[in-house]
UniProtKB/TrEMBL annotation:
Domain of life: Eukaryota
UniProt source species: Trichophyton verrucosum (strain HKI 0517)
Sequence ranges assigned to domain DUF7600 in this UniProt record: 249-366
Lineage: Eukaryota, Fungi, Dikarya, Ascomycota, Pezizomycotina
Pfam families: DUF7600
Name of the protein: DUF7600 domain-containing protein
Length: 569
């Protein structure tokens, strides 16, 4: 960590100390960015680095560029900003009005429930809301209209935890102040470069703080181990295998398993709380009416979303390589909650959706790489490594009294991107050549609906382009209209000078359409062979097409010497 960033972190936590040990553990549980040297959180460090989502899928965690040269303010000193004294001078007011008196507003008490409160209460409510929330509230309540002229309200924006808290020089400033003007002078577009950089770093610290505040609950009522796992169904990120020597000191992708916690769902369940911090589900809290809350994972109560439910029928989960990103609760009656967390850009699975009334829940939590600890025994020093807590849930498993079917449809058990295909789509369950998703680990299946809704785009297809330097890296359909790449292109790999592109024409506007696709695979055996090669890699596939007008059939053979592990359906 840069010294200036460390100083800002100290300012954020003043008057308390930075929880250094927790910071160390959380950071060591993160992978290092591939093609980069920074810890990978899933964000772009405030546009400082470029995430490669063009030539790689989001869950592949690729960094294209470690420093955005156009972000010139990122090189400026974020701690000692020379322009701040000038900003404080410009906002000086010798006779400010700290607030406004009871505004002369006609109060419609029948339609505006806030009209009964005195102005001081309105200001207190406003001080605890975001500016965007206030603007929305004003549209529905005339009582809040004058708040935008209140110096008291704008002064609250500079307090700890608010959107201008990064201007910490204000903390020791006793001069009279025009807070409205200072707020305007410190907006992103008007700020000097050094202050822009401080704000960028401060925003990142605010993302980090909930993780440092979390801790693994060690409720003695939890059953951390079990004699049997029969009948339990699990969803997990890309959990790395621990060797006899332990986990590696660093890793570039996936996550590390620290422990698993299991509990029985209380029969008098009332609510389920999910702790959500930025891009991760960190903890689950089961709330009942008559017993102590059951906590799984890392609980952050200030970042908790609570779902009202008396029975759990299952979960829909968004999972990337680093763990659980978002969850959707399936209630006992089959209804679904809204997403908790952000599923955008993340493979989705319905593996835990239809389990019946869940009576057992198990979560896996991550671990930081082992930290060295020097010990002494009988005068001899030993260096050993101890496992430390991470900060998020990386797996969720559930069981119900009902037995899990031996054959679960591919549509339900796989990880799908960008979404779970609808039940009406044929997913070639019987001829699926990939490894069973239940045993394959984290292997998302990508798919595209190149024909569009009800085949609306088929008449616009003019060709298909297959790219690969031996491997089939991408299959891209071409159209005579502009369509998003998410519809046209399957597979993401960078086109280089070594790429081989095969383009085949399809006369969609003339009525030609695809009638069938045949694929052939080749299998490899051996100890050093990747698992997906043992199950078979694509050797060639054949597309058959029929032009409606001429009623003649032609076939196009697309040959490939190799294949990457992206299943084509």
């Amino acid at each position: 960590m840069h010294d200036l960033c460390w100083q800002l972190l100290q300012k954020f936590y003043e008057p308390d100390d930075v929880p250094i040990e927790r910071l160390h553990d959380v950071c060591r549980s993160l992978p290092l960015a591939i093609l980069g040297s920074c810890a990978f959180w899933g964000h772009d460090y405030g546009e400082l680095i470029t995430l490669d989502t063009k030539d790689h899928y989001p869950w592949e965690d690729r960094v294209e560029n470690e420093f955005n040269s156009s972000l010139t303010h990122a090189k400026k000193d974020p701690y000692d900003v020379a322009e701040i004294p000038e900003l404080l001078t410009l906002s000086y007011n010798s006779s400010p009005s700290l607030g406004i008196t009871q505004p002369h507003v006609v109060r419609e008490t029948k339609s505006d429930c806030f009209a009964i409160f005195p102005w001081e209460i309105i200001e207190e409510i406003s001080a605890n809301l975001l500016v965007s929330d206030i603007l929305a509230l004003i549209r529905s309540s005339r009582t809040f209209g004058p708040i935008l002229s209140s110096q008291t309200f704008w002064a609250s924006r500079f307090e700890t935890g608010k959107d201008r808290a990064f201007l910490f020089e204000k903390r020791n400033c006793k001069e009279a102040r025009d807070w409205i003007k200072l707020y305007q002078l410190t907006k992103r577009s008007a700020s000097p470069p050094g202050l822009k950089n401080r704000r960028r770093i401060w925003d990142l610290i605010q993302c980090l703080a909930p993780y440092l505040a979390s801790s693994l609950d060690k409720n003695p009522k939890l059953s951390l181990t079990s004699s049997t796992r029969n009948g339990i169904c699990e969803v997990a990120g890309d959990i790395l295998v621990e060797f006899d020597s332990g986990y590696p000191d660093t890793f570039n992708q996936g996550c590390l398993l620290f422990d698993k916690q299991r509990t029985t769902i209380p029969s008098n369940l009332l609510r389920v709380g999910f702790s959500v911090a930025e891009d991760s589900i960190t903890g689950i809290r089961l709330i009942s009416g008559v017993q102590e809350d059951i906590c799984l994972g890392y609980i952050i109560k200030c970042k908790e979303v609570v779902i009202e439910t008396t029975s759990l029928g299952g979960f829909m989960l968004a999972v990337d390589s680093r763990g659980i990103r978002a969850v959707r609760v399936i209630h006992g009656d089959g209804n679904e909650s809204d997403w908790v967390g952000n599923p955008a850009g993340t493979p989705i699975t319905g593996r835990l959706m239809k389990l019946g009334d869940i009576n057992t829940l198990e979560v896996g939590v991550d671990v930081s790489t082992k930290r060295p600890l020097l010990t002494m025994t009988k005068g001899t020093k030993y260096l050993r490594r101890i496992r430390q807590q991470g900060y998020k849930i990386i797996s969720i498993a559930a069981a119900s009294p009902h037995s899990i079917p031996l054959k679960i449809p591919l549509q339900r058990k796989a990880f799908w991107y960008p979404s779970i295909p609808s039940p009406g789509l044929c997913l070639n369950d019987q001829s699926f050549t990939g490894q069973d998703p239940l045993t394959a680990g984290y292997q998302p299946l990508a798919w595209i609906n190149f024909g569009g809704p009800k085949g609306a785009y088929l008449k616009h297809i003019t060709g298909v382009c297959v790219t690969g330097p031996g491997n089939i890296c991408t299959i891209e359909f071409e159209y005579d209209i502009d369509l998003p790449v998410e519809i046209c292109k399957l597979g993401r790999r960078k086109v280089t000078d070594f790429s081989i592109m095969n383009r085949f024409k399809i006369d969609g506007p003339g009525g030609e359409y695809i009638t069938s696709i045949d694929a052939s695979i080749i299998r490899f055996e051996g100890k050093n062979v990747y698992p997906f090669y043992r199950w078979g890699k694509l050797f060639s596939f054949k597309v058959s097409m029929v032009p409606v007008i001429h009623q003649t059939r032609r076939k196009v053979n697309l040959l490939a010497a190799n294949w990457i592990p992206i299943d084509v359906i």
